[in-house]
Structure formats: structure tokens, C-alpha cells
Amino acid sequence: MKILGVSGTVVGSKTAIVIGKILDTMKIHNPELEIEFLDLRDYQIEFCDGRPISNYTGDTKKVIDQMMGADGYVFGTPIFQGSFSGAFKNLIDLIPPTAFKHKVMGFVTTGGNNQHFLVAENQLKPLAGYLNGYVVPKTIFAHNSQFNDKNEVADLQLLETINDFSKQYCYMSERLMGVQIKN
User: Fold this and answer.
1) Label partner for 54 (CA 20 to 30 A): which of 46, 66, 77, 138?
2) Rounded distance, CA 98 to CA 131, Å?
């Protein structure tokens, strides 16, 4: 089973750091998972303009192919102005909704305002419902204060939440898609 961690932003690094930590933790719980990481900062992605996905080229085609080949997703986005990033929205718009059907999705948000934790519940989970994905109940919100001066996750509660999230994700994958997990 191929799990794709997606850092849905073209700026900053905290979202990618948290996604990386989650993917590492998931691999501990299930070494059989095939893990890939997609960091939008590494690509020049075109805006979705309604053309068929087969007409996109370059980085946009590479990213579409990677998204389409995944069996499940861990999506991360920073929160700007009370909503997820435009880069993440553009990515989702590029992919046909049917590609997400019956796939496990988990959500990570990062930001500097504690009220931003609500974005996953109020915007991202309903998006997953529209896409007919299975949503991990636990979401992760990482506040800027939970990182040390080297930009590493330093907060023990956040690390515990990452572990719980990873277990939930692996458990759902096992039950819904037949993947085995280790406790």
C-alpha cells in the first residue's frame, strides 16, 4: 500500500517537518507501507484551468501521476487567513474526485494562531466527505510554539498526537484496505 504524505504549501517548512515525522512514525507502526513524500515547494505546478489532466505536462504531470498512484494520503497545509493554502486547493482541483474515493485521508494543519485548529474540522474533513474518502478521526494542529529554534518538533504532546494519529491511520488502512499493522 502506497501512502503519500503531501506538504500542501510553497512557503515555509513546518508543515513538511510534521508530515515527515508522521510518515516516519507510520513506518514504525507498519514497516510494510510504501511511503512517499510530496513537497509542493519542490515543483512548479500550473493552475488548474479545467483542461483534461492528460493535457498537463512537466512538474504538474509528475505531481498528478504521484497523486493518482497513491492508495492513501496524509495532507498537510499551513493556515492562512483562516483557511488552507491556495497551493493545496489547486492540487486538489487538479485531481479528479474519483481518484480519492474509498482512500484513507488524514489531515495536518500548522499555524501561529490556536484557533486555526478548527480548519481541519470545518473545511478539510467536509472536503474529504465530498471526495468520498475515509477520514482519520484524529487531526493534527501544530502551533509555531511547538517547534524549537532548530525548527524541530519539540513539544511532547504534539509528538504523542503524531503517534496516536499514525496508529489510527494504520488501523484504518488495515481494516479498510487489508494492510497489517504492528503495535
Assistant:
1) 77
2) 7
> Phi and psi of 161, rounded to 5°?
-65, -40
Ordered by where they begin, the domains of the chain are 2-175 (3.40.50.360)
Residue type, 143: H
pLDDT for the residue numbered 182: 52
Q: What's the residue count for the chain?
A: 183
Q: For the stretch 4-35, what's the b/e string if a residue is b when 16 or more beta carbons lie within 10 angstroms of its beta carbon?
A: bbbbbbbeebbbbbbbbbbbebbbebbeebeb
User: Do the bridges between strand 34-39 and strand 2-7 make them parallel or antiparallel, or are there none, so unpaired?
Assistant: parallel
pLDDT along the chain (183 residues), means of 10: 96 97 96 96 97 96 98 96 94 96 96 86 93 95 95 96 97 77 48
The set of cell numbers assigned to 115 is: 484557533
Q: How many CB atoms lie within 10 A of CB 67?
A: 20
Q: What share of the chain is helix, strand, coil (3-state, %, to 5)?
A: 50, 20, 30
Q: Which triple of cell numbers denotes residue 46?
A: 500550473
Task: Please give the Cα distance from 159 to 140 (Å, whole number).
Answer: 10
C-alpha grid cell, residue 87: 497551493
- Given a contact cutoff of 8 angstroms between Cβ atoms, the answer to whether 79 and 93 are in contact is no
